[in-house]
Design goal:
The chain has about 160 residues and is α+β, with helices and mostly antiparallel strands. The protein has 2 domains: about 60 residues, Arc Repressor Mutant, subunit A (Orthogonal Bundle); about 70 residues, no CATH class. Helix content is about 55%, strand content about 15%. The strands form 2 sheets. A 3-stranded antiparallel beta sheet has the order 3-4-5. The protein has a two-stranded antiparallel sheet with strand order 1-2. Helix 1 crosses helix 2, helix 1 packs across helix 3 and helix 2 crosses helix 3. The radius of gyration is 27 Å and the shape is flat. The N and C termini lie far apart (about 80 Å).
């Protein structure tokens, strides 16, 4: 029985996944050692895999596999008059008692806090960028003033 021939692209992708699962650093040299392929082939396939979104370049010469999730499904939650809760995820329906709903909510609380922290981080980044821009403008104004003039920064 003939062995199944894998493409060099698939060999590299499998090797990256294996090394990553073993918590090993994925470099072109490590891939050469594992696959036995030439560095020129590895470099070409790595570039293609990064461009295709299958790999992420963490830093110069270090790669990790991209996590590819299926598309998100529609999620709805309905509270019925008798207190039961229906959660629909795509075509699947969960019917929860009030106690189960509270338990599920407490399990999801960490995710909600994490989401809020990520949003705050985005907002803080935008605020820092705006502040840096304003400071840059103020520094430019300061340089424009001659030595004898006094600048009032209280109104800024």
């Amino acid at each position: 029985m003939a062995a199944i021939q894998r493409t060099t692209r698939q060999q590299i992708l499998d090797a990256v996944q294996d090394l990553h699962n073993q918590e090993q650093l994925v470099t072109r040299e490590a891939l050469q050692e594992v696959t036995g392929l030439k560095l020129t082939i590895i470099d070409d396939r790595l570039a293609t895999l990064v461009d295709d979104g299958a790999l992420i370049r963490k830093s110069r010469g270090v790669f990790v596999p991209a996590v590819l999730h299926p598309p998100a499904r529609i999620i709805t939650k309905s509270i019925l008059p008798d207190g039961l809760v229906k959660i629909e995820i795509g075509d699947e329906v969960l019917t929860l008692t009030p106690r189960e709903d509270r338990t599920l909510a407490s399990l999801q609380a960490g995710t909600a806090v994490q989401f809020a922290a990520i949003e705050i981080g985005h907002e803080m980044s935008a605020m820092v960028a705006a502040m840096r821009k304003r400071i840059g403008h103020l520094e430019a104004k300061l340089k424009g003033f001659e030595g004898g003039k006094q600048l009032d920064l209280d109104g800024v």
